[in-house]
Amino acid sequence: MIILLGMVLSYLIGSIPTAYIYGRLLKRIDIRQHGSGNVGATNVFRVLGKGPGFFVLCADIFKGVLAVAVLPDILGLTRVTQRIILALCAVSGHNWTPFLNFKGGKGVATSLGVLIGLTIRLAAIRPVLLLSVLIWMACFLLSRYVSLASIVSATAMPIIMLLTHQSFEVVVMGVIFCLFIVIRHRPNIKRLFAGQEPRVPLPFSKSK
């Protein structure tokens, strides 16, 4: 019963639509009707600016941290497998939130939060977090596509887990997160192949 309670609570934590709430309460807009229509931090950056985007990004990351580093300790679900189950529930909640008819974000920020939360309790996962973030940053700086950086980093994550000799449960989590992120980015993949995906301008880049 405790693990079921943890799964429900983790799913509900992940399902809090922070981008939608921010847009409604502070800007009086439905973020789903602007930009890409996605309820994630990247769309908030594009539509509302850097400040709101950074706030939503941090909030979505915090959901993942809370679900795997705080909630399990409160409930006594401290085994690796239990934390990973709650991690998957949190990201699923973000991707398919019941508060928006099961249409949520793409899970990148919350997956990052999960990795951060796991590193707090499991030091062996720290290389996975570090290398995944470095790959994301390198790909983004080279391409200026947030979506491409997310897809490449997500695809590399289970490979990094294997190379760093993570446990079976952790590798399975990495594979599932990779599938989640790739599947949720299908529209972006189509736009990338069509040359229609918008790039994110860098602060130091010259405008054309």
Question: What secondary-structure arrangement, pairings included, does this model have?
Answer:
Layout: H1 2-14, H2 18-27, H3 41-48, H4 50-75, H5 80-95, H6 108-121, H7 126-143, H8 146-163, H9 168-184, H10 186-194
Structure explained in plain terms:
With 208 residues, the chain is mostly helical. It has one domain. The chain has ten helices and no strands.
Query: Helix amount, in percent?
Result: over 70%
Order of helices and strands: HHHHHHHHHH
- Overall average residue pLDDT: 93
Count of β-strands: 0
The low-confidence runs, each spanning 5 or more residues with pLDDT under 50, are none
Multimeric state: single chain
- Report the radius of gyration as a whole number of Å: 17 Å
What's the total helix number?
10
Distance between the termini: 58 Å
Main structural class? mainly alpha
Beta fraction: under 5%
Structural domains: how many: 1
Annotation keywords:
mainly alpha, 10 helices, globular
Short overview:
With 208 residues, the chain is mostly helical. It has helices at residues 2-14, 18-27, 41-48, 50-75, 80-95, 108-121, 126-143, 146-163, 168-184, 186-194.
